[in-house]
## 1
Amino acid sequence: MAEAYDVITIGGGLAGAALAKRLAENGMDVLMLEHEVAFRDRVRGEQMHCWGVAEARTLGLYELLRETCGHEVRYLSSQLVGFSELRRRDLVKTSPHRAARTCNRR
């Protein structure tokens, strides 16, 4: 007998698992399909930009990410080749989401 689901997510990585969690919390019947039988610790990205941090907060995942695998990078520094001035930007003060970037701990 076939079962009916509102949503089927393919992949239980960060994006698929976060989507499935949020939809299930909001009352949808969700099936998540994952190929791996055990979690493999793999780096999928070096950083999460400010808008991704805002989305992770909305999903209730940001603090878990910070506690387990990431750290905030509040300032963005840049310098043009041939110029001595180093520019430093406070992402929390200047980004639309008022959020820093988050980078993987190594």
Note: The chain has a mean pLDDT of 83.
## 2
Amino acid sequence: MTITQLQYVLAVAEHKNFTLAAEKCFVTQPTLSMQIQKLEDELDVKIFDRNKKPIQLTAVGEKIVEQAQNIVNESNRIKDIVDQQKGYIGGDFRIGIIPTIMPTLLPMFLNTFNKKYPKVNLIIEEYNTDEIITRLHKGALDAAIAATPLEEPELMESPLYYEPFVGYFPQEFRKGLSELSPEDLDINDILLLQDGHCFTNGILNLCKASRLDPNRKFDLYSGSFETLIRLANEGLGVTLLPYLHTLEMPEKYAKNVVPFKDPKPSREVSLIYPKTELKIQIVEALRKTIVGIIKGAIAFENVNIISPKNAK
């Protein structure tokens, strides 16, 4: 039994396909299949049920994969200890970012980080919060950036910044408002992101409502803020946006942005990583880079963090 064989098993378990797993491991499919077959022969069990499409783990295979993940993580930890001792900051680092943060935050810090830490190969993937939690537990991600708190006992959360909500209210919905309070929000006017976004849950909590008026003529959940803004511009409703999303907004749209009164409702955005602290030197390098940049974009005073329930 080798670490490499266990890594191949984990890849097939994740992708449920031998060819795709081989591509991700940078080996040929016959090589990967042969090594897994050798491991199955050595253990005298079948790890995968190859008759099912997609490939499924057997009952014993599920237990083997769970233990294999622990073994691979610990083997990575040995290399990580050596890297930390040498002060080395480099290698592959897989990070997940939720969709409501990725398009605004990533362009702000990525170039700076790459220049400062050229030996780090960031592998950036976009997932919703639930998928990020699952992948962090499985070891498929080294860290993530998401709205917190998550209340996950095996994960560490290092807050990066607090991002205020702002309203996007076209003139027909403004009613003379120069600042908003939660009482000004009518859930039946608000256009939301599709179900499952933590930002949507935050808005519903902020409005203290989760049911739409049954007489409403449409029920729309979009996957992007850009779509919500366009629909709002057509007079179909209003929406709430994270503050960073408004920084480069064209003037004709920026005039529709309405801030909240103090204390401003906000979301906590954190760097999340396993308590094993694998590759902690890269985690810390990311944290310092992002915090250093974000301070110039968001004022930290007078914010009110939304309930932890919004992060789920």
Note: The chain has three domains: 3-84, 90-162+267-301, 163-265.
